Amino acid sequence: MYKCAIILAAGEGKRMNSDTPKVLHKVCGKEMINHVIDNIRSCNIEDVNVVIGKGAEKVRKGTKSRNISYSVQEDQLGTGHAVMCAEEFLKGKSGSVAIFVGDGPLITESTVGNLVNFHEEGEYSATILTSIMEEPAKYGRIIRNANGEVEKIVEFKDCTPAEVKVQEINSGMYCFDIQNLLNTLSKLNNNNNQGEYYLTDVIEILKKEGKKVGAIDVPVEEITAVNSKVELATAEIIMRERINKKHMENGAIIIDPKSTYIDWNVKIGRDTVIYPGNVLQGDTVIKDGCTLYPNNRIDNSVIESNVTVQNSVVLDSNIGENTTVGPFAYIRPDSNIGKNARIGDFVEIKKSTIGDGTKVSHLTYIGDAEVGTDCNFGCGTVIVNYDGKHKNKTVIGNKVFIGCNSNLVSPVVLEDDTYIGAGSTITHKVPKGSLAIARAKQVNKENWVYDKYNKR
Ligand code: UD1
Ligand code: CA
Known about the structure:
Its main location: cytoplasm. This protein is an alpha/beta fold.
């Protein structure tokens, strides 16, 4: 059967107190609305329409990569009105439409799938996701008849004292038969406490027309909507727990899941050990058997197997097998570190390639350089890549030894097997196999101190 989905996202989200539209706030590195879209898509529902209004242009931009269609709701006259604005999207279609909210990122792929299957297999005209809440606060109440069938949804503000006591609530997420929904939308009115067109009223109308209405009870956690930054943090905790659990089931070892922050799209291999304070972001991939000691931020990077990283920042870069990074290293974008390499403490690498087996053990800056294999950088080497106007390139061959506290003034080339005396400032190419020393020769002035101070 044909299936499509509508996501309501036209509301303002005043309580977020933000310049960013509510649905574009991120949970574990992904916009809330994109979590909803991706879950819908993974249930093979391709046709997705988002109702936008407040902050429409930003929402369009923030969801552009998802290849969806939009309906515009100029004035926010209620959830029923929002769906009316998507009438063009629904017209001429027959099958099912699932409706979700853009600020409910915790709905899972399996619940989306169950909702649609239950709805279609039971041949319902409407199916509601509901939840049982100890304190249902402002949620709409699910009112059932003597046979236990859903009769209607009553909004909190329109409830009688008896209805307020009902603990089964409306999640605001549903599946409808498209034709039944379209026929009913035109019958909605705004004669209620809030003067809005309620989508929830569709249920009572369908029921009165003798149509079949179903409900599925799901955990409260999944349907919790985010209305404030406090609730955003709560959603983040729930999502983080799910992500960490998935990685542990896939074979990662997370010492303290509560203090490990992994974005939704990160991949982690088997037997990789993650200590507290790691922040793994973007499309990062950590392969098998790595050890991430405490306090790393790794963004959009690929870490090959058996790498150790400690107290370091790695951005948009690759780290080869068996390499160690840190403590206190800073690997900036577009760097490629080889296998069996060592990037030690207080080393910064920017837009550079470092060959296999090369050691940069401490206090060194390497920028815009191509470095070969099995080189050794002495403590305090600086690649002088910037002349005040341009960034210049340095090329270093294989098996190059650079003495401590040297400057390599770019552009410059150090050919294979070269050796740089400590304290040198290298400004010219060093030919293969040569020793370069570029510093003043040492002069000893005997008894200079005693003579000066007349101490003899
Ligand atoms: C709605 C339900 C309520 C349910 C609750 C669950 C109605 C009338 N009530 O209430 O039964 O318990 O959700 O969270 O549907 N939106 C628009 N255009 C509008 C109004 C809302 O796009 O004109 C969007 C909002 O951006 C939001 C969603 O619809 O994503 C829900 O709107 P909201 O105002 O939060 O509905 P509630 O009053 O909470
Ligand atoms: Ca709400």
